[in-house]
Specification:
Keywords: Phosphoprotein. The chain is mainly alpha-helical and 162 residues long. It folds into two domains: 7-76, Response regulator (Rossmann fold); 103-157, Winged helix-like DNA-binding domain superfamily/Winged helix DNA-binding domain (Arc Repressor Mutant, subunit A, Orthogonal Bundle). The chain has six helices and three strands. The relative contact order is 0.09.
Length: 162
């Protein structure tokens, strides 16, 4: 747990401590809370709960766009703080899980593209049928105990030929 009176100090502290949640005021000297929230969100450090004395729609939208996962208007009741904190932490964890799933899917898609290019090369240069090209990549990967993507990259670089 840490505390800072300035936005720039808060950002430094958040980066150092890697907390589950950062509670930020919109108006902070040095760097406003919305900019801190934006950077914390961009770096995927933790969930952000924004506090403000202003309830104007524009401020709420700016906080949301900056990556705040929960929002409380001051003065707030203590009974409102815990649920808002829990919501911000839970939403951050959900976003992290979705981001990780997205990264895995992007990696699989990229691997699929590389394998398809390698199959195309085997078909064009070695007159293989598509199933034969795929089987060659698959068998080589099993024999070498490596990923099909790695075998495909070797084919594309010319390092591996049937």
């Amino acid at each position: 747990m840490g505390e800072a009176g300035r936005g720039d100090q808060a950002l430094k502290l958040i980066r150092e401590l890697q907390p589950d949640l950062a509670i930020l005021d919109v108006k902070m000297p040095g760097m406003d809370g919305l900019e801190v929230a934006r950077q914390v969100g961009d770096e995927r450090i933790c969930g952000v709960l924004v506090l403000t004395a202003f309830s104007q729609r524009e401020i709420i939208e700016q906080a949301r766009d900056a990556g705040a996962l929960a929002f409380l208007v001051k003065p707030y009741q203590k009974s409102d703080l815990i649920p808002a904190m829990e919501m911000a932490i839970a939403r951050f964890r959900e976003l992290q899980a979705l981001s990780e799933q997205n990264d895995v899917l992007e990696e699989k898609l990229e691997a699929r593209k590389i394998i398809d290019r390698a199959k195309g090369r085997l078909i064009d240069e070695f007159a293989m049928k598509e199933q034969e090209a795929f089987a060659f990549i698959q068998q080589t990967a099993m024999t070498e105990r490596s990923r099909m993507r790695d075998v495909a990259e070797k084919i594309l670089s010319g390092e591996l030929k049937p």
